[in-house]
Amino acid sequence: MARTPNIGAVARAAGVSVGTVSNALNSPERLAPETLERVLDTIDELGYIRSSAGRTLIRNASDGLSLIVPDLDNSLFVDIARGAQLTAAAAGRRLVMANSGFSSRDLVAGAAPHDTQDEFLGYFAEARSGGMLVCAMRDPTSGIDRIRNHVRPIVVVNYDAPGADWCTVLMDNAQVGRIAVDHIADLGITQAFYVSIPDVVQPAAERRTGMREAAARRGVTVTEVDAAALTASVGSDITTGLVGALADRARRGERTALLFLADDLAIGAIPVLRAHPDLQIPDDVVVMGMDGDHRPTGNDWMTMTSIELPGYEMGAEAVRLISAESDPDHAHEREVLPVRIRPGATTTGR
Amino acid sequence: MARTPNIGAVARAAGVSVGTVSNALNSPERLAPETLERVLDTIDELGYIRSSAGRTLIRNASDGLSLIVPDLDNSLFVDIARGAQLTAAAAGRRLVMANSGFSSRDLVAGAAPHDTQDEFLGYFAEARSGGMLVCAMRDPTSGIDRIRNHVRPIVVVNYDAPGADWCTVLMDNAQVGRIAVDHIADLGITQAFYVSIPDVVQPAAERRTGMREAAARRGVTVTEVDAAALTASVGSDITTGLVGALADRARRGERTALLFLADDLAIGAIPVLRAHPDLQIPDDVVVMGMDGDHRPTGNDWMTMTSIELPGYEMGAEAVRLISAESDPDHAHEREVLPVRIRPGATTTGR
DNA sequence: CTGAAAGCGCTTACAG
DNA sequence: CTGAAAGCGCTTACAG
């Protein structure tokens, strides 16, 4: 990069010292009005843009915040990112994001997660990030321990690490499972299939725990089914395997619930059920997902019952906790945000 | 931030000079194997992490790439971001993103765009970004001119600025409009409604141009309708206003096409049409969107005909162009990537 | 193969 | 209110 005008060039052109130029930028109230004006005019003329590297060197910290998200195809993380970015902007801080490319498929398949979470942790540590939000789908402890002293506040979002030495922002995943069961129990349904991925994925494990607890409490019999991925086509395949049993029950006048860990799975179930002459939604089968997609797709001819996840609030809260860390007697917090049901036609009929 | 161990601390502990520690990190082949090992061990023991600020100061450039996207709720930009980030990672470079919070609603409403594009341009210029991808929905020229000399290569994605002094990566928006009309003309349809937003949004303007050209060529009569936003509910409202005319035509045995600038609009049309007893899809009315959502929602009980946009390729190509800029006799390029139709049940019946 | 030294652009007490 | 000077952590010729 060709050398751009530096603070010395501005000082020379304005006939002041470099310290005065620096003060014009950082403490303008210290300058005589005429001096300030002359310096600012010179900055404009020269097209001077301060390099943040100098300040970062001195402070051993930059003032930008950084956010690592696992996967932008997941609307939860898009919501978290927006909540974080807008809250940061409102506080006058910039936030940049990195996508670590995490795929829950790896975990489900038992493969080592092939993401770049630790690479980005290192990258932001070298940049002396002024605060880091780590949105994790797997335990980030080892990666964070490595950079702990080089990045000021760290907040972990969406992963509950045992013995965490940082603030954590979570949603109440057990409540997700409980609410789903309570909803169908309220409809008088006593038999359900619960389609999820293996418990190596922490939110899946916690939702299952909540689901089982509510099922026992409400007297709902639940058959658990494993999905290999959270896609509509997997949802279709699994449902195809269940229609026989569902139709048998329907002929006996019994309703069945299909509870899917993700809306994408649930969406895949719909066409399979509609294609079956004996199965009406929601009279014979009710369907619900559990990660209500905020995205404005208005995705169906029938609205899908789902659970609204507090992604935006999680991101916003994480940024607030970053700011709270500058308070000297701050103690790390573990916040668990509530979820709520969004009833739709696939369970209530409208 | 408490002072972390610096290169001097490592040098002292390893009994070498700071230059040698630097070489261990940047040119390890220059060191005697034993020296190298001793230095690396010391780095490990001390938990030393290099600060990139020093190098940025010297080079007047950092090695990270940065990407500004207008809006993560738009799947096009999520695709671009993924294409860019994976291509960068494959080339051993890190890429960070910023969301400028652009809303096309502002433009459509005639309001000044209230985004943070220029703020982030300035932020990345202060960080001496090693390369910048600017995904723009409005003309970025003034913002870029301001930072032109402080950021090495700049590539603009998705905005065709007149007289651009940089590489540009575009999709063929005129082709989007042409393909849509050709598709319905191939089905023998001669009457269509075209629902778009005003031409202040550049892609909308270009698609309209392509649409008109194809309509003239194929003898299709098109009635143009203005939408205030690209949402399903706006699509529903507009369609509600059209069902009378559509039903009249259906009773005369004439098919009509509804072409929507965005899939979200088109999705909103579906339930309105289904609710009308005289209108069958696709026998009386065919429906298509024009920004095929890559996201894995499997969004409907009937697949929506749409146009596949080359978002991933645009992001990947933009990163390749960034690298190409380091070639001394590089000339700025303007690349226009093709689009293609994805036929679905809403026009072909399956 | 290794070390000593200059310098990148900035901020911050301190002196005046 | 302004200036002179030290120093942040690093890289890079250069000398040996």
Automatic annotation (TrEMBL), chains A, B:
Membrane-crossing segments per the record: none
Alphabetical list of SMART domains matching this protein: HTH_LACI (SM00354)
Keyword Transcription regulation (UniProt): yes
UniProt-recorded Gene Ontology molecular function terms: DNA-binding transcription factor activity; transcription cis-regulatory region binding
Domain HTH lacI-type, residue spans: 5-59
Lineage: superkingdom: Bacteria
Protein name, per record: LacI family transcriptional regulator
Organism: Candidatus Microbacterium stercoravium
